[in-house]
């Protein structure tokens, strides 16, 4: 007899309508609905206090339906959102699953041990996006299942390149932890040797990182294009005009933008922080460099330009890796978990 799908309540940051990038509650939530789950999700409140309160309101309003609660769990302020939601789930007798997104969650495991036990130790399941977090959680005796981010590979047209011009694409929010200024400085270094070099930076302007990048580019007369936030379709179209995807982040888990760049055929050069080495294999799918290391970034991009055959081979391998993350593959893992909690 086929098991009945549980009703789901998915709590996370749904801030796309406020100009932010989509998160798990958006793209995984869409898939869960497509797979036939009755899903309530939130919150879309821009103000953090109102968002916190709205999440709890949704929880208390839905408890009579006995939903299985999914909690997007991050490592900064939203960690405390997750802790509070989990405590309320226990008060209401509801099962919950923590979806581990925060690249700095290992810091929480070490420095917020009591609250981690209250959150992760009482969860019906903890789902990591990569082996990186699963291994860190195992060190603290938390059993964690790995289900990577998925996406629809058919939406990503692969562009094969035989040569790689120094045309760089950067896609992320303009926040300090993603080190956008490093991307501008990488372009500056390349520009000395490659006058045709250029950089396009796509993403919402979240904090003071954007004006700092813009001022630096203008002061040094660098060819940097700032588009602001673009739709997925728009930046995918834009990617056809570039050869490289650079990811300069200082803290990360398994960035969706890197997976998308792999699917599109861009040569990926990224920092080696967090779960990124678990997502891509050095020299097989991408070139990985130390965080905040301008020289290593410059050298890696020059190597790709000067070794086009090896770079093309990495791009092909990266596309094959991305195809293994299609929702058709990931779906079975989610179904098995949700139907057996």
Primary descriptors:
45% helix; 341 residues; six-stranded parallel sheet; alpha/beta; Rossmann fold
Describe the model.
The chain is α/β, with parallel strands linked by helices and 341 residues long. Helix content is 45%, strand content 15%. The chain has two domains: 8-150 and 327-338, Rossmann fold, CATH 3.40.50.2000; 153-323, Rossmann fold, CATH 3.40.50. Strands 2-1-3-4-5-6 form a six-stranded parallel sheet, with helices on both faces. A six-stranded parallel sheet has the order 9-8-7-10-11-12, sandwiched between helices. Helix 7 (180-193) links the parallel strand 7 (167-171) and strand 8. Helix 2 runs parallel beside helix 3 (77-92), helix 3 (77-92) crosses helix 5 and helix 10 packs across helix 13. The longest helix has 16 residues, at 77-92.
